[in-house]
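step 4 of 6: structure.
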Amino acid sequence: MKGLSVSKAVTALMLAGLVLLPLYSYLSGNIFILTLFTRIVILALAAASLNLIMGFGGMMSFGHAAYLGIGGYSVGMLAQEGVGSGFIQFPVALAASAVYALVIGALSLRTRGVYFIMITLAFAQMAYYVASGLARYGGDDGLTVYNRSDFSGLVNLSNRTQFYYLCLACLFGVIFLVWRIVNSRFGLVVQGLRSNEQRMQAIGFPAKRYQLACFVISGTMCGLAGALLANNTDFVSPAVMYWTRSGDLMVMVILGGMGTLFGPVMGAVVYLLLEEFLSQITEYWALIMGPLLLLIVLFGRGGIMGLLGRVGRG
Amino acid sequence: MAEPLLRVEKLVRRFGGIVATDHVSLDVAAGELHAIIGPNGAGKTTLISQLTGHLDPHSGSVTLAGRDITYLPAYRRCALGLARSFQITSLLLDFTAADNVALAAQAHAGTSFRFFANARKEKGLRDAAHAALDRVGLAHRADVVASKLSHGERRELELAVALASKPKLLLLDEPMAGLGVTESQRMVKLLQELRKEVSIVLVEHDMPAVFALADRISVLVYGRLIASGDPASIRANEDVKRAYLGDQHVVTHHG
């Protein structure tokens, strides 16, 4: 039980840090850190959504960044066409992501294991090239979002602090949902399918429809991250869908701890801070980052969360 | 005689040139414990797989309580009251014993597209799980993760999982496989209890157990059914002796 409390303490500390960050930024006058952490929080949301299918559902999607693009482009394209209201942009972003997930999931879930990884990757790359071909919306160069989503005074996305708290609220909301889902009837079935599909079929569960539903929920959540990301950077380009970005998300989940509630947040914070910190020291930061990740994956089974659990147990 | 619970008619399944199931027909009456025996490679598991829906036959039919289920997927058959245990234990190893059984109960208690309420707090499911665990004598191990259970306990848990779906017919694929002497005896005792409540098709190598339990025995050799009848007539059957019991004579004597 002590092991549990160590990882719990670290998690609580991290969450408190995230909540209090704008205060620190205000007192120290360090605006940059707020911008950085807005990005971290948004990508943590994306990682948390990936964790739902990868960690709990056992579906290794290597194309999750596609939703970042779909969510982002929904905001960008609508803004370009003169629809600036967030009340339209965000629902469209979520719906587009859900539809994409439904189609891709229905096709991909016919396969298993490595083939599932490859087919989700292939679809994401297709989305990438489709976006590159959108001449009207900037094509390869991407699309500048001149006005952030307008929530008619409810929240002002151009205000750094308000935007940060909006992202943080979305992150907490998604984690709350994931928590409810994994303990629900539906969540138990999905985790049972990860554990032993044959057994689940034999006791009467049709595997595919549960996995597909889970895939769609996860994709929709990630679409939200995409919509926020476009607002954060005031820009969306095909690059957000590139396969390396999908890989980043996977690394965050694995690094933090697959199938744990707060693991993906931990993973996103550590990964992106390391990236930021190391890239300031040297241009060849990936040379340090790579072996570091390797060590954590090799020796810290269960990621950082698993490591903390074992440290606590001594 | 009333309509049989399970009727298999002229079932054929080939693997390349080998006919693994060769025009097999058999009936299982309600309340009966029907054992299927045969030497290794006789096609017992192939036959069971067609009954459970894990393998499609090339021709013939399987009827459960008057309903044709020949090509229904496994999960639909389960809903109709067919439950199985696996020859090689197949459980959710990272779930507790209670969770394993509760999921089986959940599959038969309304929709599982519920996303918000905590399923582990659903009293109906928990009660059903504990009742089934109690039935097989595992109630005291309810909160143990399945991977931490002994082999014998896992076999019992498989039974509890099958029971939790409230089946009409239980297909048991070698429930005694890999069990020690005392564990086997416990399993036989347990099956003797269960057979009072549910019809059972039992595939088993353990001859003493089969002859102690079965109402009727069907003998499968090279995919073909060579005999079917009560234990006494099977024991006396010359074909069966020649094809099968011959090399296992010692075993039957010990029984």
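step 5 of 6: annotate
 - Chain B touches chain A at residues 52, 54, 73-75, 78-79, 83-84, 86, 90-95, 99, 102-104, 106-108, 111-120, 122, 161, 164-165 (CB under 8 Å).
 - Chain B has a mean pLDDT of 89.
step 6 of 6: archive
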